[in-house]
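Researcher: Next sequence.
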Amino acid sequence: MNNRTVYIISGPTAVGKSLISYYLAKRTDGEVVNCDSIQLYKHMDIGSAKPSEKEMDAVTHHLYSIVEPDDSMTVARYRTMALETIDDILSRGKTPIVCGGTGLYLNSILYDMRFAESEADVERRAELEALAEKNGNEYMHQYLEALDPEAASRIHPNNIRKIIRAIEAFEYGKGVLDLSDCPMNPDYDFRFIALNMEREWLYNRINNRVKRLISEGLVEEVQGLLNRGYDPSLPSMKGIGYKEIIGYLNGEYDLVDAVELTMKNTRHYAKRQITWLKRYDFARWVEINKGDTVGDIVNRIIDYYG
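Model: Next structure:
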């Protein structure tokens, strides 16, 4: 396989990653590989804003709706599936286009990471404490955010003890080495695009998207998940949009408040995603401006790399 080009299309939620990846795939004879943690799950189509059936029929999409919501999905497991998928796409002479904004999943593709199972909780705790001392509280809070957004939303970034405990609870002993100890994955020629737009415009798009998801049936989707017996404490059910609607269905607040809370939490998440992406000094930032067509944006992405 001579061509090792792999596009990475990332950016904050609601910036248009899925649509741009779709049209980039059409231009480059590509196939899209999901890198969004919630879009991996079956029965969670509306709240995770998966690509439409029409888009998936026109361009091959991988790693969407592949596991049940109560299935255990680790970063190590995702990495194995994603790299196997990328290699398969390349072997057929096509272009992989990785689409998504889940930070640790991106890292697992970009870096030659090693995954190991700690012998005891105390060992893993020592690793996390050393990681915190080296990189700081904000880094660890972003780490937790990528694993468990719900836990991160209720733990202050300065409460490093709770952050570490939350990471332990989610990982069950599965650890990822610090990126400073991980070289870039040498098997691929990454073309990393970070999409962004003016903050107020992005926030308006987020608010409008939440309203659209409600009109498309998000409440009914969440009720259906609960009816299937999926526990609200599952990591999948703690995704933004799902946890807020669960609160509404449990009578904690009315639907108007649930919508406002979803909008607020999504805006905060988008801000944290942008902060995370700024850590990649090799990313090419593409600013989307009002009036740009999808074709304009795809042309700029392709032109970036000649």
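Model: The chain has a mean pLDDT of 91. The longest strand covers residues 189-197.
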